[in-house]
Write a structure and sequence with these properties.
Layout (H helix, E strand, L loop, with lengths): L45 H7 L2 H8 L24 H9 L7 H5 L6 H6 L18 H7 L1 H10 L11 H11 L2 H24 L7
Helix pairs in contact: 1-2, 3-9, 6-7, 7-9
């Protein structure tokens, strides 16, 4: 992790928020993760980790196993034990397993957007946090929002006909019609849009169309 910065990167094993939340002093703003390790041993420096980071961050850091081999830094896909991205694991992260009850199984576990929360009598804003213009629904967030449309255009993935009328129809189309490459791009776009949406809602992060 020599090239990974302590702040800013998504490197902690926490599906809810993989970033370090500790407010570091200015002189440590550019600190790298390798600075939390012992100098000549491939182990975390527990004293430094606990001294620099909050209890939550320190606990998460110390649960990360360090390789005993000298290897370059690489991205690790947390949804797979081997750390390699697969379309299947991305689908599981997005909509969960759907064994037994077919496509309707995962639609019952509707993403907790404004539409779903209002149906459960939870007070929340109706406006999409991505475009800040239209009412937020599952279909809007992933497909009809101008930010989403710009993302789809960038990866050159198109949807035929009226498949975007419902989230169920759109995902069924993706898995039944798209080839492996297009499906991979489509799932990454959906995951990125959802992460961006959650960042805006829960952490006040700014949304850009780039």
């Amino acid at each position: 992790m020599g090239g990974v910065y302590v702040l800013g990167g998504d490197w902690l094993p926490d599906a809810g928020n993989r970033k370090v939340l500790t407010e570091l002093p200015p002189q440590l703003a550019e600190a790298r993760v390798c600075g939390l390790m012992q100098t000549r041993r491939r182990e975390w420096d527990g004293a430094v980790v606990r001294d620099v980071l909050s209890e939550r961050d320190a606990r998460l850091v110390l649960t990360i196993p360090l390789s005993t081999q000298e290897r370059r830094d690489s991205l690790y896909w947390m949804a797979e034990k081997r750390g390699r991205f697969t379309v299947r694991s991305c689908y599981r992260e997005l909509v969960g397993e759907y064994e037994g009850d077919g496509w309707m199984g995962w639609t019952k576990r509707l993403l907790a957007n404004a539409e779903a929360l209002r149906n459960r009598w939870v007070e929340c804003s109706r406006i999409c946090p991505l475009c800040d213009e239209e009412e937020e629904t599952s279909v809007h967030v992933f497909f009809t929002c101008r930010v989403a449309q710009r993302c789809w255009a960038k990866v050159r993935v198109e949807f035929a006909g009226d498949v975007r009328q419902s989230i169920q129809t759109a995902f069924q189309y993706m898995f039944s019609v798209m080839d492996a490459d297009r499906l991979g791009f489509a799932l990454i776009v959906c995951w990125s849009l959802w992460q961006c949406r959650n960042g805006a809602v829960w952490r006040g992060e700014a949304v850009t169309e780039d």
